[in-house]
Design brief:
177 residues; alpha+beta; globular
């Protein structure tokens, strides 16, 4: 159990305002530090300590990890011989991205496998989700509906297949605080 001094120190660190503050480290970096698979470098540690936004995200990930909650899934574009992008599935099978053409525009639909163990909690808690491409660009952000889907307009000018090919051929689905 945390003593009173430690709780006060934590509140002061997390509540302070820093002009222009933003998330300074990727979730993958923070999760690797929590796992112990990759320690933070001196620069990363300085970024963490200097950014209350990043500290709050780190704390959120640590608490969620302690509860055993799902935090992130990744997937990659598989080789496709046509110019069309098939549905993309995360490596753990929890998420599928569908791309629906609507005239010259596209809709992107994120769907959770409702039979998967984390799905019930994600639906119940209406977790805010973000899908990013391999370069960190935000593909979509939102909450699942009652059917376990989130639909948004495709935000980029390129088709989904072209965009993912240019931006690392990978994607990630992440829970936000």
């Amino acid at each position: 159990m945390m003593n009173l001094d430690a709780k006060l120190r934590e509140r002061l660190l997390l509540a302070r305002a820093v002009p222009g503050d933003r998330l300074m480290l990727a979730d993958a970096t923070l999760l690797a530090a929590l796992d112990g698979t990759r320690p933070l470098s001196a620069g990363e540690l300085a970024a963490l300590n200097g950014s209350p936004v990043t500290l709050r995200r780190f704390r959120h990930l640590a608490l969620a990890r302690r509860r055993g909650a799902w935090q992130a899934s990744t997937g990659m574009l598989r080789a496709a011989d046509s110019g069309e992008l098939p549905a993309l599935t995360t490596d753990d099978g929890l998420w599928t991205l569908h791309f629906v053409p609507e005239g010259t525009l596209w809709q992107v639909v994120l769907a959770v496998d409702v039979a998967a163990p984390p799905a019930a909690a994600l639906l119940r808690e209406r977790t805010l989700l973000r899908v990013t491409d391999g370069a960190g660009g935000i593909v979509m952000q939102g909450r699942l509906d009652a059917d376990g889907e989130c639909e948004r307009p495709w935000p980029f000018e390129e088709t989904p297949a072209e965009h993912f090919q240019r931006h690392g051929a990978t994607f990630a689905v992440t829970a936000l605080a």
